[in-house]
Each structure stands twice: as structure tokens, then as C-alpha cells.
């Protein structure tokens, strides 16, 4: 039997209301380059310390490990409503027909029924098996409107609560805003010397 996890009654983290009126914790745990060992060893501690927002992506390769940690936490008494889980749609899946299979894989790996926030990871499409950084010919046309329409369907079907973007230029953001029926709730930007 899983040991009960004690949650702080009032975590010391501020939240912000998104366009949907859902609250997003101001501080979250990013899982890029965390590795499965780190996920397993620190997840309980970070939840006990007051973290409620876990930020991950299929591309990070840790969603299955996070899913096991989430399942253990919930078996130990953490309620799903107390957590805020973000994931991202990877560049190779930036076609309308790949959005739904990608979110289904993410939900299966995370062992969840819904995400709080689903983001377009980068505003360009990559060929399957593309290098990092991509080589000439590996960056493909991106059907922004078609992909965004599929993201909007996920909100309408309660598969995700909010949708957003990462690393968009102002020009690409303006284009998205001109066609969006559901506005992006978040624009996450990578900043730092380690990126």
C-alpha cells in the first residue's frame, strides 16, 4: 500500500488565472533533461514541498516515468484536481492528423484522463527522424491553422483544459491570433544560458 503523501494546505506558490479562468501555479517543475531516476526519486518530495505544476513533453522521454510517479502520488492521497500538468506537442506531430494520436500517447504515458495545459512545443514542423538541430530539408511546412483547430477540439472535448504555444515569434503569434477561435492561454518562452 502506498504511503500517504502530506500536502501543504496552502502552498506558498502564487497562481494566475488563464483565459479559461483555470488557475496555473506561477512556479512549476520542468522535467527537461531530468531523467527517469530523478523523476522517481524527487517526485514525492516536490509534491510535499508544495509544487503543483509539472511541465513535461513527449520529446523529453520521461512522460511514462512521470505517469508512474503520478499514479503513486494519487494512490497515496494526492487528488488529480490538486495538480496542474502541462505537456507539449512535438514538432514531428505538427500536422492536423497527428495531434489526437500525440495527445492520446501523452495521456496514456502520464496515466491521466486530461491535461491542464497542452502547448505547441516549437512553431515549426520537423520531418520524422530529424536531427537536432535539424539539417537542410528536415524542416517542413507547418499547417498552423489545421493544427490549432485540432488543439481547439481537444478543449471542446475536455481532453485538455487550456491550450497554448511555446517559442513563437511575434509574427507567428499574430498569425495564430488572427485565426484562433480559442485564444492561446500561455506563450511559454525558453530563456537562459543553458538552452
TrEMBL record:
Checking Pfam families in the record gives: Aldo_ket_red (PF00248)
Give start and end of each NADP-dependent oxidoreductase domain. Answer: 27-189
Q: List the InterPro entries.
A: AKR, Aldo/ket_reductase_CS, NAD(P)_OxRdtase_dom_sf, NADP_OxRdtase_dom
UniProt GO MF annotations:
oxidoreductase activity
- Tell me the superkingdom of the source: Eukaryota
Q: What is this protein called?
A: Putative aldehyde reductase
User: Species name for this entry?
Assistant: Lupinus albus
Amino acid at each position: 500500500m502506498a504511503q500517504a503523501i502530506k500536502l501543504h494546505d496552502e502552498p506558498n506558490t502564487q497562481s494566475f488565472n488563464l483565459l479559461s479562468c483555470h488557475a496555473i501555479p506561477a512556479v512549476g517543475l520542468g522535467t527537461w533533461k531530468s531523467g527517469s531516476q530523478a523523476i522517481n526519486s524527487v517526485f514525492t518530495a516536490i509534491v510535499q514541498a508544495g509544487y503543483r505544476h509539472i511541465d513535461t513533453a513527449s520529446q523529453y522521454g520521461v512522460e511514462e516515468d512521470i505517469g508512474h510517479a503520478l499514479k503513486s502520488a494519487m494512490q497515496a492521497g494526492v487528488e488529480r484536481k490538486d495538480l496542474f500538468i502541462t505537456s507539449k506537442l512535438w514538432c514531428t506531430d505538427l500536422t492536423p492528423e497527428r495531434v489526437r494520436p500525440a495527445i492520446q500517447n501523452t495521456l496514456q504515458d502520464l496515466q491521466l484522463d486530461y491535461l491542464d495545459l497542452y502547448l505547441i512545443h516549437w512553431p515549426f514542423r520537423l520531418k520524422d527522424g530529424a536531427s537536432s538541430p535539424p539539417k537542410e530539408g528536415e524542416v517542413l511546412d507547418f499547417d498552423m491553422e489545421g493544427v490549432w483547430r485540432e488543439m481547439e477540439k481537444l478543449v471542446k472535448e475536455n481532453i485538455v483544459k487550456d491550450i497554448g504555444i511555446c517559442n513563437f515569434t511575434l509574427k507567428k503569434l499574430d498569425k495564430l491570433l488572427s485565426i484562433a477561435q480559442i485564444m492561446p492561454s500561455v506563450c511559454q518562452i525558453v530563456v537562459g544560458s543553458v538552452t
